[in-house]
Write a structure and sequence with these properties.
Rossmann fold, single chain, 17 helices, 2 domains, six-stranded mixed β-sheet, about 25% strand, alpha/beta
């Protein structure tokens, strides 16, 4: 098919101990947004990194505009009109939008070391106009939102006259309004005849933005289907190839269970203001709110990761002093950060080491030697219990998919046997199958008597999982809602009402 922008066939890629891609195929047409989906570890990002020259394929053929090509470097991919925007954006925050777009290609004026900012601003404005982006080219990137930074990346691709743009989880950190703005820019880019590969775990987005969808599973190609001919349920079925845990939590009454955590008048101005709530044994307490509501900041105060300015914390009815995370761990609190790579894992260490890290004292022999046999045994136990996909306990955490990394973090705190578990965005950036397993795990932990706090920006997830929901806005608790009375509309109302005091 010579009218394809890209055609990949029989693509294979091996990593140590893992066949990441096995006889994979993919095609992209001009003027198309093509969704690429699959569970974490399905191979979708690996396939696109082969296309972008980040990984070298071990077998298969790649055609660009009908011509066979070999792509060994990102620079080669760029010369063929292929660009990738990673989840972690690569912009230089201290430079302006236009300087980021034309870095290394700046117009000079007079002296060779003098950049003609007026000229690069003019050229950037022309690019912005092409995709209907209203943004001052001279604005410093540091003050822009993540969505605006992604739009600059799109404009940068356009400046190189790219025909193919790969976007990996572009909306994982965006608000609903920002997502809609990004979609407008993507559509405008598509209307110029460009092709966009859109990698996402958010099923609802696929129907909004994609023309076709390709599903991968376990490193293999499964199917490509026009978006209008497939349902979300069918996509999920193709992705997981197994039954998904879909039953909602039986919202029992946990209000009569003992209170294991009580927080009174917690303060750290301006991000946390006079926050109070309690948590019962066997309860999943959801925390909802918009970006900047103060949910994560509240949990970091409770865990001792940041110093509080005021307030009291009680565990099992006794006041405790928590000044450092080790104090929180000693009192039976485990914290699964939203940034698992930065705060949850030692990426350069093995699954085994990460699993026992918070409980190291249990595995130490005399002279500080680790009992390798015991550490391996417990690691294998939690790999099996959490269905973690890894070749062995010795695999490095950095080589696992996002969902499997999350399971290792969960396993770490389960080995520690923490009674209070704080899950901050536990399913962010992981696929529908891994989400299902995390949901099942949370419910099982609650049924075992663990007390769980779950922060989530996905309202259906909060509604599905929580016994009660605490809503925050600009550092304050504006409502505490029971499961039966909670709706998306009610949560959004309280999430935007900063002057309300807690109800419920």
């Amino acid at each position: 098919m010579t009218d394809c922008l890209v055609k990949m066939e029989g693509i294979e890629k091996m990593f140590p101990g893992v066949k990441a891609l096995n006889d994979c195929q993919f095609e992209l047409l001009p003027g198309e947004v093509h969704g690429l989906v699959g569970e974490n570890g399905a191979g979708k990002s690996t396939l696109m990194k082969v296309l972008a020259g980040i990984y070298k394929k071990d077998a298969g053929t790649i055609l660009v505009k009908g011509k066979p090509v070999e792509i060994h470097t990102a620079k080669q991919a760029q010369s063929l009109g292929i660009s990738i925007i990673h989840q972690e954006l690569n912009l230089m925050k201290h430079l302006t939008a236009s300087q980021n777009i034309f870095i290394g290609r700046e117009q000079k004026k007079g002296m060779p070391f003098l950049v003609d900012d007026g000229e690069i601003n003019r050229k950037a404005k022309e690019l912005f106009d092409l995709i209907n982006l209203r943004l001052d080219p001279s604005v410093q990137v540091a003050v822009l939102t993540v969505a605006q930074q992604q739009m600059i990346e799109i404009a940068k691709a356009l400046s190189f006259n790219m025909d193919v743009l790969v976007m990996d989880e572009p909306t994982s950190a965006l608000s609903e309004n920002e997502i809609e703005e990004l979609f407008k820019v993507i559509r405008n880019f598509r209307d110029l005849g460009k092709g966009i590969v859109y990698i996402s775990h958010r099923m609802d987005e696929l129907h909004h933005i994609c023309d076709r969808v390709t599903v991968m599973r376990d490193g293999r190609y499964i199917a490509t289907t026009p978006m209008k001919e497939i349902t979300t349920e069918q996509i999920i079925s193709q992705m997981v190839g197994r039954e998904i845990y879909e039953s909602h939590h039986p919202h029992g009454d946990t209000s009569k269970n003992e209170i294991v955590l009580e927080v009174k008048n917690l303060n750290r101005s301006p991000v946390v203001r006079d926050v109070s709530f309690d948590l019962h044994r066997g309860e999943i307490l959801g925390f909802a709110g918009l970006l900047g509501a103060g949910r994560t900041e509240t949990m970091r105060l409770i865990f001792g990761a940041d110093p509080k300015e005021g307030g009291e914390i009680f565990i099992n009815g006794k006041k405790v002093i928590i000044k450092h995370p080790k104090d929180a761990v000693r009192h039976g609190i485990g914290y699964l950060s939203e940034d698992r790579k930065r705060y949850g894992l030692a990426l350069g260490m093995s699954v085994k080491v990460n699993t026992v890290m918070a409980s190291l004292e249990k595995f130490l022999r005399p002279l500080g030697i680790i009992d390798e046999k015991a550490a391996k045994k417990v690691s294998m136990e939690y790999i099996k219990k959490l269905n973690t996909r890894t070749p062995s306990v010795d695999q490095l955490a950095k080589n696992l998919s996002g969902g499997n990394q999350q399971k290792v973090v969960v396993g770490k705190w389960l080995v520690k046997n923490s009674d209070i578990l704080i899950f901050d965005e536990p399913t962010r950036g992981i696929d529908v199958g891994a989400k299902s397993e995390i949901y099942k795990l949370l419910n099982e932990l609650a049924d075992q008597g663990k007390a769980i706090i779950m922060i989530s920006s996905e309202l259906p997830e909060i509604l599905r999982m929580s016994h009660r929901i605490v809503v925050m806005c600009e550092g304050r608790v504006t409502a505490t809602l029971g499961a039966e009375e909670s709706t998306q509309e009610k949560i959004m109302y309280y999430a935007t009402q900063r002057n309300l005091s807690a109800a419920g």
